[in-house]
Each structure stands twice: as structure tokens, then as C-alpha cells.
Amino acid sequence: MNPRIVALMASLLIAAAAVAVTVSGTADDASAAGVDVIEHPSVVPDVPNRGYPITLHTPGWVRPDGRIRYRETKAAHLLEGRYLLSGGNFLEVELPDGTVIDHPYLAVVDTTTNELLCRDLAVDDEVLAFHPGPRPGTVFIGGRFDKVTGSDGVQRTRNSLALIDLTGCSVDRTWVVPGIDGRVTEIDVHGDRVFFSGSFLTVDGASQPHLAEVSLTTRQLNPATRVALAGHSLNPPILALATSPDGSRLGIIHRALTVDGADQRLSAIFDITDPTTMVLTPHRARTDNGAWVEARRLRGGAFSPDFSMLSLAFAAGWQEDYVYAIPTMELPDQLGWRNYVADSAWATAISNEAVYLIGHFCKVTAGPSPTEIMAPNSGPDRCSGTNLIPDGAHRTQIAAFDIVDGTPLPWNPGNSGAVGGRFLEVTERGLLVGFDGDRFNNVRTGTTAFLDFGVPADPRDDQSCTASEADGTVTVVWDAVEGVNDYVVRRNTRWVASPGDVSSYVDTPPPGTHRYRVRTTLDGVQRDVDCSPDVTVADLAQTCAATRNADDTVSLSWSAIAGEDTYTVRRNGSWLTTLGQTTHDDDPGDGVHTYVVRSQINGIQTNTTCSPTITVEPPPPPTQTCTRTTNADGTITLSWTAIDGETSYVVRRNGTFLVDNGAALSWTSDDPEPDAMWAIRSRMGGVITETDC
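Above: the chain sequence. Below: its structure as C-alpha cells.
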């Protein structure tokens, strides 16, 4: 956590210890660790980025009192440090060359090219919230829309909540939460849990007023995520929504008087460790030294990225125009500091250096910082109530306060908002501002201003990777990158491994010269680092020997391939067997047989022909003799020599079967035919032997 926030938290803990109240909660350690803190080196620059397409503040309508209301940006987000998204009720966008096009409610700008992206991606009403999606280039949008059209031209029903992909300017076809019957104004995602809030009362036919949770993967509603807000007169009652970095706590900033029946004004923290229940913690905010500021005057709120603090913005009354900074510790009577402004404050945001405030004011309470170095610089002082703080510091509709003690910082860029600014968001590159004017610090920005530190240094700028080879094994070693816990290794043209949260990988590639590289993804941005030098693995030729045994079986034996676990044996071009060893015995039968051993390690196929080719010939027919004797009585006796192992001799006459004589080696005919042709047939071992007698 930033040392300045640590100092503030320490002082607040000392003060809390003096409160004569018994408490049963403590600060959440994981949240206090500041896992997701956005580190800014100072207050953001006061000159906005320029050159981007401009969302125009063309007049929208005239109020009953005759005042003109202008179109404005109500939400903005910098996705992956590159895509600048704006949402609101604007209708037109002016391109850098001055061309004005109809482009209502949603604009996407590539900050690296100043190009307006996704011109075919359209919504039918205001976009009011953004949150990064589950994959690079994707983003959740919330608002009051019912239809979203992607680049395919198909209009899809999405009641106030949708998932879009900026890489293809498409609408996710499967991620649908039906039946949200009102606006979605806040979105937060932690793991599989998607939280959103707004003016709705039902979700997918179920009563779910103002706050809901659905599964990222199944889109199923979690009925346990439910809060009962009472005593609020403005809609939506929830103005800010956030989860702690470890996902154990859910915070809301709201306009209700009671939460789940408890007197719980302005903010509430829930323990959501168990997804089947929400438990209200002892966190209680205090404002105005114990005197409650009217909840209906609350106009904006924000949680710090590390969930250690929240800030509140009040408006619509001279005595209620305050900005507050309040810790999120699970203790009662929480108050960091407060600062009075004149007049209305409508939105706030928190970095590690400052609490930012925007609205329709011209002065803030003076503090130790200089008060006269800046005056309003974007038009006349249109504010009221400045006489209430005659010694205040001039600030034109936007201000920054020291995060520790609330001292107004000497920073006054100013803007030309007609009614005032209504949106702020801290990003890793600076601050996004939404208002109903067209100039910020006298720079023409349209209704979205980006106060940009510039592209932050990438910790991968100096990343290196080496590759080395020994005995056919390649070791790849690279510099670890903070924030990256999944690396992908590439060999030549294919990705071969995802070793996870490590900084080395051992590979067993096939022979040849190989180039390695390692890919990382940080904040949604992919980058590859080439490993040097290229490595060459010698061609260690595989050998295979084939041996014909005395019993006409064949024994195969081959050399191993490094890293290979299984080998496939093929006979005469056909698969024979797959096994995890380097020997195999086969009984192929008669014929000429060629054996091949196949390896498929790392997708590289290697075929090694076994030598020599094996020929298994059938045994020669046995040598047999048969004699025919005419007896005195005129009978004929046949006598023959044995065939080894044969037990069935067939007597044939004139080419046809006559009798099976079994194993006997002679046979006498009682009915001789003087001109008959006699023969003895044997089928030993499937080989037919026929001997004339």
C-alpha cells in the first residue's frame, strides 16, 4: 500500500481505539494489503490528452425552468491501457478531421492511433457503466439500453447488461442475463461472480431490487446476493459498487436510511466469503462530526482500487456540499476527513495520491495549500454559494484533495461544463472525466477528457530469455515479470508449453535448429520475448534391429528417442501395436515383412525402418511314399510312410474322398477297381500333402 495511505490508516486506527465502543470487526488484511492499488506518481496532469475523436455536447432538451441541458459523458473506462470507452446520452462524434457522424451512446477510441473503433457496434439507449470482461478485448457494459447490434448487423436483446468484444466489435452471443427491468449503473466482477446494481427491481422474473449477482460462466442468478434498502427517495439508490481485491467483501455507497433493517446510511460493507449468504459487517460511516448529512443529497461515491477507502460527494444544498473520505475498516464511526465546497459536488474518484471531485462548484475550503495561485480558467464563475467560503480556494468544477488530510491541492484545470461534471474514474494512466461541456483546461476535448500520464513503462521492456542445449535437451530461462503468473513457450512456429508461474522450461525437441520465444499477458496486453541463441539439436539417428527366431517369430529392438514415452510398431504399412518400451516380439506368419517404429514426440513424427526385412517361408512339403499291393484274394492293400505329427490320413480314389484312416499307415480295399487311381492325403499344419500309391 502507498505509504501516504498507510499513514492515514494508522492515524485512523489510533483514533478508533479511543472510541468508547466495543467493536467486533477488524480491517480485512487482504484488502489492507492494497493488492489492486493504482499507483500515481502525483496528482494527474491538468492538460488533457488531445487528438482523439470528440463526443459532442450538443444541446439535448430544455428544462421547464428554461435551462438548456447538454449531452454528456456519464461513464468512461480505459480498457487494457489502450481502448478508451465513453458512454452517456451523447448522439454525435466528431472525428479528428472535423467530420461529424451520428454515433450515439457509446464510443470506442484506440489511444495508440486516435482512431474511432467499432462504428458498427450500436446500442439503442444510454451506456452508464463499464467493467473489463473475462477475455482480452472484452468489456461488460451496463445502462438503460434494450438492444445491442454488433458488426454482423444482428440486433440482439440485452436488457441493460451486455458483454461485447472490441477485437471483433461483436456482441457475445451466449452471455445473456434476461429480464433486467431497469437501468444498470454499476458493475463489478470477481472471479466467476458478476455483481451489478441499478434501478431495476427484477432479474429474469425474480424479485431482485437494485443489486444482483450472476455467474460469469452459467449466467445463473445468485439469490443469496440481496440487500434490503429502505428510506431512499432517489433512483438508483446504489451509487457505487466494489469488491475487495480478495473477493471476500462487497461494498456499496447508497442513498438509503437502513440496510437490511439496520441504521446504515451512506455506505455498507458485506462479508461475501460464503456465496450462499451476505453478512453485514460492523462498518459504519460518520459524516459532519456525527450529524448525518441527508442521504438524498448524496450524488456520487467511489471506492479506492485497493478497497481501503471510499469517498462521498454531496450536492443540492449549501450546507450539504461536501466531499468525504472514509476508511472501509469494519469499525463503527468511520471518518477520515471532509471538505466543504461551493456549490454542488456530483462525482468523485480515488487514487493513491488524491481524492478527486467534480461537479458545479467554484471554491473549496481553504487549507494549508496556496489558495490564490489559480482562479477559474474555463469561463465565468457560474456557481452560487461562494460567499459561504470567502477565503476558499478557487477551483472550477473539479478539484483534488490530499488523500491523507483532505488539503486542497494546487491543481485547477477547470472545465466548461454547463451544469457540471458527473463522472470521474481513476485509471492506471491517469483520470477520466465526463461532463456536459466541450473544453477542459481550455483544450477542446468534447464530453470525455483524459488526463493522461502517458503509457506506463512496461516491466517487460528489459525482459530477456536464454536457450541452451545439452545432450538433446533444451533449457529455456527467462526473466520473471511482476504481475504475470502464466507464461507460454513457443518453439519455431508452434506453442509447446504453458508452464505456469515459473521462469524456466525444459524441452526435448526433435533434431534440428530451433528458435524459442516466451509470451506474457499483462493487463490484457500480449508481448513476446525472443530467446537467444537459436539452438541446434544433433540428429541422433534412431536404429531398429529385426531378428527372425528359430520358431519363425520376429524380435524387434530399437534405440530410444529422448523424451518419447510411447512408440508405435507398424508391420507392412499397418499399425501393429503401441507400447511404452523399446522391444517387441511378433509372430507374423509366412511372407516378407517390413517393420517400422514410429515416434510422435512434440507432434514431430519420426519413422525408423527396422533392418533387415524379415522373410518367413513355408516349410517344404514332407517326403512320403505309398505302395499298392494286390493280394491273393484280389484285394488291394495300400501302405505309406508317416508324416511327422500327422494323425489323420485320408484315402482318396479317383480324386475323391474314400475314407479317413486315422493315424494308421496301411489300408486294404475289399472292393478293388483294377483301373482305379489311389492316393493318400495329409493336412498337417494346414499344408496339404497328397501322395500317389
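The chain has two helices and 65 strands.
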